[in-house]
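User: Sequence in, structure out. Go.
Assistant: Echoing your sequence, followed by the structure tokens.
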Amino acid sequence: MGDLKIIYVPPFSGIGAEETGYDVPYQNLLIGQGKAGDILRNMLLEVYIKSQDNPDDDVWETLCSHIREIFRFELLPPEYEGRPYILCEYLPGIPRKTRGKDSLYALDIASGGSGFHQVLLLLAFFYARPASVLLLDEPDAHLHVILQKQIYDRLRLIASERKCQLIVATHSEILIDGTNPEQILSFFREPHLLLNDTERDQIREAIKRLPATDIMLAEDADGVLYVEGESDFNLLRAWARILEHPVYEWMTQTPFWHSNQGRNPAEA
């Protein structure tokens, strides 16, 4: 157990523009503070150095090939020697017209979208820290729905190749639908593994139709009050107050009610 490496990867929340070299303990500190974007350049530099030290295992080119296939971007080798900050750039996949010629300008990785940053960070962890248990918090964040399944399938494949284990916290119905039920741990009511496809489908539908607050309220609720809208709920609460009805106390605290907007009652 002493050799087990556990790495928590929080949701991507921005990228540092002036990132100098950090040792691993300080990188871990920044991750624990939820500042994973502040070590992205360090991770890319680490992957690149690994490739230079071991040309037979060119992890840098492998990482670049994934980015090339997913985003059509071409990562350039990180540069740090003789610089105050780590330089990480890429070439965009679509040429820009300049003075009648096709040209590709190198852009800093900070110019990319948040989905690109999220995937780049995850891949960097895979290739810089193999044989790790990666705790991924919402890896689908910032990703287009169509890309979620494509990237999730790729992450699982890479994790197997790099001998990593993925533990993913997610609300993505796409990720849930693409995972075997026995590998899904639901925290509704109490932590439990799902037993079959039916339970997985129920979880997926609940996430699709209900906000997280409703799902949390459902854990403690004795029932759900369905009304057409908020005005109907306010009318019922006013009547309960005038009639001094016992339900009034419930309606003024944390009632679990849901608007079905006058649709078919079967929706309930």
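User: And one key feature?
Assistant: The chain has two domains: 5-178, 212-267.
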